[in-house]
Design brief:
By secondary structure, the protein is an alpha+beta fold. The chain has helices at residues 6-10, 12-20, 32-36, 59-72, 124-131, 150-156, 163-166, 200-204, 238-250, 263-273, 293-309, 321-332, 334-337, 357-371, 399-416, 435-438, 441-454, 468-471; strands at 28-29, 52-54, 76-79, 96-99, 106-110, 115-118, 136-137, 173-179, 185-189, 213-220, 222-223, 227-235, 257-262, 283-291, 314-317, 344-347, 350-351, 374-380, 385-392. Strands 12, 13, 14, 15, 16, 17, 18 and 19 form an eight-stranded antiparallel beta sheet that branches. The model is unreliable at 471-477 (pLDDT under 50). This is FAD-binding oxidoreductase.
Length: 493
């Protein structure tokens, strides 16, 4: 992370007093024990105590805090539920955490316009729970949907098991209220399906808290499909399972969800939830089909035939809603289930073209042997979004570093086959130094210019997304500490 500014650290008491002048005492956390709860997000391997934590209760208080920090030059890290899997909410030592958990109300439910207006601290599943009595739901469903918040979903452009057919967050939001670093409140979009002018929502979704703080989100809700049934398909190899995925899509079938797990993930998950997954297969594919009953019945027959052509050795079709939900219960619990087979794991997030699935799975197996670390694969097969779980023991010297190197090789592999570094977890800290693998210096410079247009001082979520070496020359400037330039061995330009 960037070196903390000594001048800000020295003014800590003054800054905390200034924040307490804006918010009730209960909304400002300055003691070490209280701050410790905010020292990391779901990537707990990286930890850093923030200067202070503030918990505003409304947009006006968010605006006041940001304006104060802008005037004082204090960095700000926005935080939702802390479920980020890329270190996106990792604090900086000379900055505050701006927690949005108190902005947790649904402000409006508009069935006529099929829209819900919610504050950023509302959980993903909370939106569906609020509208399901009327036969509606919110489509994006990350595995952490019981805990992750809609504001964090906007920051990371979260997806989920049903993103293949119904899209990621960017395809399901209609408007946002955004507070800039100087305290200015802006609104983009609304309840209309399309907004004129620039695609501000497309820019802001997935911006990882670098451009502003979202204080209100308008999302699109959908009618629950008339029927939904799932197939559980087992294959003798991951390659055959991957081939089945490609053939289903090539046949013009777009399932509501299509997920895949390999043998280690299957065994860990079945031991965790006991839903009846087959344990004698190398790959398990869950395919959900939804729509009118007659269409679903027809598509089940077609998918079954495709699975047979790919040498499927087991096949189960859900006969009721309880069984369908049981199929998904295992997949949703795959990440915590991995804790049964390894003391620690890193959850990666790369996306590849579907045609490269077999090739990438084979290469990842080779890398697993090369690094001497276990690997369990769980991924959104339909859109090529991989979530390899690298298994290691942090108590063994050097294993965490090996796991990081292994993960970096997986992400480079994704880019090499025509994919990208992330599908839904974001870049954050985890993938920051790999950005040059995917983007040229010109690309990164253009992205940084957008960041500077919203946040000229670079105070919002510093240390994320952009490689640190790239930051050295931003705006023609270089940070010199103690009379020594950083990395003196590197050629200058």
């Amino acid at each position: 992370m960037p070196e903390p500014q000594a001048a800000i650290l020295a003014r800590r008491d003054v800054i905390v007093a200034g924040l307490r002048a804006l918010l009730p005492d209960a909304c400002v956390i300055a003691d070490e024990t209280g701050r410790r709860a905010y020292e990391c997000d779901a990537v707990s391997a990286y930890r850093q105590l923030p200067l202070a934590v503030v918990l505003p209760r409304n947009t006006a208080e968010v605006s006041a805090v940001l304006r104060y920090c802008h005037e004082e030059g204090v960095p700000v890290v926005p935080r939702g539920a802390g479920t980020s899997l890329s270190g996106g909410a990792l604090p900086v030592a000379d900055g505050i955490i701006l927690g949005l958990g108190k902005l947790n109300k649904i402000l409006d439910i508009d069935f006529a316009n099929r829209a819900v207006v919610a504050q950023p601290g509302v959980t993903n599943l909370g939106i569906t729970n609020a509208v399901q009595h009327a036969g509606f739901y919110y489509a994006p469903d990350p595995s952490s949907q019981i805990a992750c918040t809609i504001g964090g979903n906007v920051a990371e452009n979260s997806g989920g098991v049903h993103c293949l057919k119904y899209g990621l967050t960017t395809n399901n939001i209609l408007g946002v209220e955004l507070v800039q670093m100087d305290g200015t409140v802006l609104r983009f979009g609304g309840k209309a399906l399309e907004a004129g002018g620039y695609d501000w929502l497309g820019l802001l979704t997935g911006s990882e808290g670098l451009l502003g703080v979202v204080t209100e989100v308008t999302v699109r809700i959908l009618r629950k499909p008339a029927t939904a049934r799932a197939l559980l398909l087992g294959f003798p190899s991951s390659e055959q399972g991957g081939d089945c995925v490609g053939k289903i899509i090539a046949a013009g079938i777009i399932p509501g969800g299509m997920e895949m797990m390999d043998r280690p993930a299957i065994h860990a998950t079945e031991a965790f939830v006991n839903v009846g997954y087959p344990l004698d297969v190398e790959a398990l594919l869950i395919v959900e089909l939804d729509g009118p009953p007659v269409e679903v019945d027809y598509l089940i027959e077609r998918v079954s035939a495709i699975a047979d052509s790919c040498s499927a050795v087991t096949k189960r079709i859900s006969v009721n809603e309880a069984e369908r939900m049981a199929f998904w219960a295992g997949r949703k619990a795959a990440f915590p289930a991995a804790g049964r087979i390894s003391p620690d794991y890193l959850c990666m997030d790369g996306t590849i073209p579907r045609r490269a699935l077999s090739q990438v799975l084979t290469r990842m197996t080779e890398l697993s042997k090369q690094y001497g670390l276990g690997l369990a694969n769980v991924f959104h097969a339909g859109d090529g979004n991989l979530h390899p779980l690298i298994l290691f023991d942090a108590n063994k010297p050097g294993e965490f570093e090996k796991a990081e190197a292994f993960g970096a090789d997986i992400l480079r592999l994704c880019v090499d086959v025509g994919g990208v570094l992330t599908g839904e977890h974001g870049v954050g800290v985890e993938k920051r130094e790999l950005m040059p693998c995917m983007f040229s210096e010109i690309d990164l410079d253009q992205q940084k210019r957008v960041k500077e247009a919203f946040d000229p001082q670079g105070l919002l979520n510093p240390g994320k997304v952009f490689p640190l070496l790239h930051r050295c020359a931003e705006g023609g400037q270089m940070h010199v500490a103690g009379g020594a330039i950083p990395h003196p061995d590197l050629p200058r330009f």
